[in-house]
Write a structure and sequence with these properties.
The protein is α+β, with helices and mostly antiparallel strands. About 20% of the residues lie in helices and about 25% in strands. It is built from six helices and nine strands. The chain has a six-stranded mixed beta barrel. The longest helix is centred in the first third of the chain and has 13 residues. The protein is globular and about 45 Å long. The N terminus is likely disordered.
Length: about 260
Amino acid sequence: MSFKGLLGLSLFLGASLARDVPANVDNLYKSIKNKGQCEKTLAKGFYSKYDNDNSFAYCGDHQDDDKIIYIQGSNGQFANMDIDCDGTQGSAADDGRCGNSGDTQSITSFADTVKGYGAGINDVDANIHPYVVFGNVGSKQGYTSFDPQEHGIEPLSVMAVVCGEKLIYGVWADENGDDGEKSVVGEASISLATACYGKDNISGNNGHDQNDVLYIAFTGKDAVPGKKANWAAKNYDQFESSIQDLGNTLIKRIK
């Protein structure tokens, strides 16, 4: 391929890093914020940060009309973005920023499904695959749980994230366990967070603290890219561009 061809491809893929928020998604964001808090709470009692209150909830206010579920706090808050580095470790895409993460695990929630796609990988890679940590599992006393699958969200389905005045597509690939102090929400892979806020601002131990990130999950099997996604991608751009068309279709649900 010529240099101009390579440059054009680079610009095309790089555009996925800076997708503007469409008007319908922006209107949803503003309406949720102005409303203040969720009315149809699917599960509540979560924290965005340990020093926040536990007013955060999985919200179903638009589950029937737009077929979406999202995270919302009180007083117009959304959630923050902690950094997840779980999954495949030490790939060529690993630039070392996950090295200072103190809670990295070598497997994510749906690793078996990823492996079953036959793409030659055993799990998602936080440095390549933009994924969201959604749902809370565990049996610790006082820990609040939520299983998105009970409400129609499919594993490894496409999610939309509004962050840093951008719209990023990812997949639901991991869940919050009960190994922390409290039941928390608001976490994404380091590749997704980097697309939102830039490489210089994100590391395994440094995310985005403001509760202004909207995580949108879509119900139904049609939200799952399955083998059509480029699971064997070598970098974020390659994977995110492979789910872009499906993401663009799903956000049309939002009226």
